């Protein structure tokens, strides 16, 4: 391949005879045997660079007026003259006090010297040298391109005749307002320490450190410094210790904002959990607060306190009381505390808030139910064989490559290959995902194992069928677990309906395998054991009744339903005689993930809702109170928002609205606190294992603050 001759090729890499890649943006372009298309593409870069450079020169107070961007079609590599009319020649550019970017570079050296002298006079030579260097380089490239294009277009032009002709130039365009030197210097000064732009950029970097769990010393990295120099050359990056000091100031500011906000919130739900940091073997207590901001459920990390004493109920209770005092939160504001079922945790909640405010974590209970199945001796051999195959595939790069190749060759994945998933002991649903992925890739896995003598034994046809049916039994439980893990919306009012639908889904499972039917029965028995009395829990029952999507259609125990209705009536009566009352309710903010059309977990609920709505339409009895009217109305669609519903009907159901709104903050699980420690694990890494507990707490708190709150 002969070397390219045109000067345009200095900005492109030739891929083949018809394709070239731009060195600036790496875009592939068709050359088709000439450079016209390449020159047109490069001109786009030059126009952008010229506009940016012109803006930068004005900002840095050169005092230059806007350059004339329009040129005559035959004016190739020419410059403007100080006269209003010029003679165009191919070799000698004309001059004008308004120089284009191209003309600036091609002007005599004395012009450059004058420009640079003017820059030194304004004390901004350091900031503007880079602009001039870029201008000269871009101007040189522009001249090359224009000359190359001119050679192609004007091969037969008689320049001697052209030079004898006088062509008037169009009057140059000028900006109506040009920043003064004073304004330009003021802008430059704002990037120095203490300036407004310097402070704003520093805040953005601090937000980046907190939000993305980055080490403080990341600001000293070569890549970060190059990025900041490219984005804002005038900004001097502070030392990491400066960011630590500013973090303390920012924490105090945000804490005071949240402290004032929480003081006005009448109802708060707490979740907390404990976590051990393995690198230095430290224990931490994480506490998260949940409350309503308008129609939105908000959460914030109140504390991540290191525990220096044994994790007894008394010690945990003492820490909780200190945290509430630190945030000036009263115990009357706490409507519920959601934790796991650990004896020490339950004891701490009972001592600090009373037994009636403790709410067991729904997700932990579901995990205990699922473990009965995953640890069953009837299916352990199947799980062990699948687990061995997954470990073998993950240890071998060759096996993994073969699995990917088979998927691509057989078009099993539409160009996206999948990997086998290995389960973990702490999350039962990982076992479900392991079986699900194994079933998807069983054909590819079988092909690899057959041709590998060192492979573990493959499941037999009967075992593969059993693994598939075990997955079917676990699917409803997996849906419930995933649904309960919602943090951005409240889940407590969905617990009774979900358990009811879960039992219905399991009852409808049929199989010819005795093992599968035995597992189904064992699972139903465990659900009854764990959730048999849930309708007598006022947190759950009252919140379900006040959720317009469910009301009383999922109650299986009429006595529990009637007691909950009576309880609501008593609260309404007390509200009429008192400005405030305590009740137990928590309709949820739904955010139901779309399931596959083949699988509808909520099918049983829809059947009940349809029957209830038909019954409501036939009701003719006289209605004499808010609760009766509310319960007699049809249930809302499953994808509707309970909060929006209550806002719309609060003028009609005033007492019920006050009761419902007082518990919309209650979440169904302590998962938010567990996620806090997932963030903590990402914060206390090998690079940050010397963080103090106070600094860790501030980092996690600020990481929970939204962008609007941070920069508002």
Report on this model:
This protein has helices spanning 36-59, 101-106, 109-121, 125-153, 159-163, 181-190, 196-211, 222-231, 240-263, 313-327, 343-353, 362-374, 380-395, 397-409, 429-440, 442-450, 461-484, 495-507, 514-531, 538-545, 558-577, 603-617, 626-632, 642-649, 654-661, 671-683, 693-704, 707-711, and strands at 12-14, 19-22, 28-30, 85-87, 166-168, 268-277, 282-293, 296-307, 334-339, 358-360. The protein has 712 residues and is an alpha+beta fold. A 5-stranded mixed sheet has the order 8-7-6-9-10, with helices on both faces. It has a 3-stranded antiparallel sheet with strand order 1-2-3, covered by helices on one side. It is globular and about 90 Å long. It has 5 domains: 7-168, no CATH class; 191-238, no CATH class; 248-360 and 693-711, Nucleotidyltransferase, domain 5; 361-532, no CATH class; 534-589 and 602-664, no CATH class. This is BED-type domain-containing protein. It comes from Psylliodes chrysocephalus.
Question: Characteristics of this structure?
Answer:
globular; five-stranded mixed β-sheet; DNA-binding; 28 helices; 712 residues; three-stranded antiparallel β-sheet; transcription regulation; RNaseH-like_sf; 53% helix; 8% strand; Nucleotidyltransferase, domain 5
């Amino acid at each position: 391949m002969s070397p390219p001759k045109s000067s345009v090729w200095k900005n492109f890499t030739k891929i083949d005879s018809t394709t070239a890649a731009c060195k600036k943006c790496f875009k592939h372009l068709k050359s088709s045997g000439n450079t016209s298309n390449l020159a047109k593409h490069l001109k786009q870069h030059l126009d952008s660079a010229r506009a940016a450079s012109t803006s930068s020169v004005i900002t840095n107070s050169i005092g230059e007026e806007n350059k004339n961007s329009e040129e005559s079609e035959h004016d190739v590599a020419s410059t403007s003259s100080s006269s209003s009319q010029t003679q165009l020649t191919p070799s000698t550019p004309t001059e004008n006090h308004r120089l284009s970017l191209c003309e600036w570079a091609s002007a005599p050296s004395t012009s450059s010297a004058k420009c640079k002298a003017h820059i030194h006079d304004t004390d901004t030579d350091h900031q503007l040298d880079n602009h001039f260097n870029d201008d000269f380089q871009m101007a040189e490239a522009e001249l090359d391109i224009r000359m190359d294009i001119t050679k192609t277009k004007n091969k037969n032009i008689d320049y001697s005749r052209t030079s004898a002709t006088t062509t008037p130039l169009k009057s140059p365009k000028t900006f109506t307002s040009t920043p003064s030197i004073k304004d330009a210097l003021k802008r430059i000064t704002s990037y120095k320490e203490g300036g407004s732009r310097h402070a704003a950029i520093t805040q953005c970097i601090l937000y980046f450190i907190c939000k993305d769990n980055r080490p403080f010393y990341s600001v000293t990295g070569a890549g970060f410094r190059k990025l900041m120099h490219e984005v804002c050359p005038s900004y001097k990056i502070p030392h990491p210790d400066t960011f630590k000091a500013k973090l303390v100031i920012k924490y105090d500011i945000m804490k005071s904002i949240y402290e004032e906000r929480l003081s006005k919130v009448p109802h708060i739900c707490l979740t907390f959990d404990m976590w051990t940091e393995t690198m230095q073997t430290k224990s931490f207590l994480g506490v998260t607060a949940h409350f309503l901001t308008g129609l939105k459920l908000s959460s914030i990390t109140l504390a991540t306190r290191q525990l220096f004493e044994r994790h007894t109920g008394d010690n945990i209770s003492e820490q909780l009381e200190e945290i509430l005092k630190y945030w000036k939160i009263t115990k009357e504001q706490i409507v519920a505390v959601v934790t796991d079922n650990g004896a020490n945790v339950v004891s701490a909640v009972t001592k600090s808030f009373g037994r009636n405010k403790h709410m067991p974590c729904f997700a932990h209970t579901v995990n205990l139910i699922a473990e009965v199945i995953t640890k069953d001796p009837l299916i352990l051999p199947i799980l062990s064989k699948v687990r061995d195959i997954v470990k073998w595939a993950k240890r071998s790069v060759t096996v993994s490559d073969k699995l990917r190749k088979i998927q691509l060759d057989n078009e099993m994945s539409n160009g996206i290959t999948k990997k086998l998933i290995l389960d973990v002991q702490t999350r039962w649903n990982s076992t479900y995902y392991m079986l699900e992925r194994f079933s998807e890739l069983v054909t590819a896995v079988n092909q690899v194992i057959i041709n590998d003598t060192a492979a573990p034994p493959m499941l037999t046809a009967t075992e593969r069928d059993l693994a598939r049916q075990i997955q079917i039994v676990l699917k409803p439980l997996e849906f419930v677990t995933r649904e309960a893990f919602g943090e951005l919306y409240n889940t407590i009012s969905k617990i009774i309906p979900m358990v009811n639908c879960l039992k219905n889904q399991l009852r409808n499972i049929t199989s010819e395998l005795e093992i599968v039917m035995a597992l189904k029965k064992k699972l139903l028995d465990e659900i009854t054991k764990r959730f048999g009395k849930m309708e007598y829990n006022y947190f759950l029952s009252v919140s379900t009744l006040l959720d317009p999507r469910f009301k009383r259609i999922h109650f299986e125990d009429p006595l529990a339903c009637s007691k909950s209705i009576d309880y609501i009536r008593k609260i309404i009566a007390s509200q009429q005689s008192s400005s405030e009352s305590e009740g137990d309710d928590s309709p949820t903010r739904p955010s139901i993930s779309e399931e596959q059309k083949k699988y509808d977990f909520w099918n049983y609920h829809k059947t009940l809702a349809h029957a209830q709505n038909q019954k409501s339409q036939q009701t003719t009895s006289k209605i004499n109170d808010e609760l009766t009217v509310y319960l007699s109305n049809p249930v809302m669609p499953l994808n509707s928002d309970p909060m929006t519903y209550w806002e719309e009907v609060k003028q009609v159901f005033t007492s019920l609205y006050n009761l419902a709104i007082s518990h919309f903050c209650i979440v169904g699980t302590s998962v938010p606190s567990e996620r806090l420690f997932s963030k903590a694990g990402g914060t206390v890494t090998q690079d940050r294992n010397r963080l103090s507990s106070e600094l860790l707490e501030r980092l996690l708190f600020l990481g929970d603050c939204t962008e609007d709150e941070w920069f508002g």
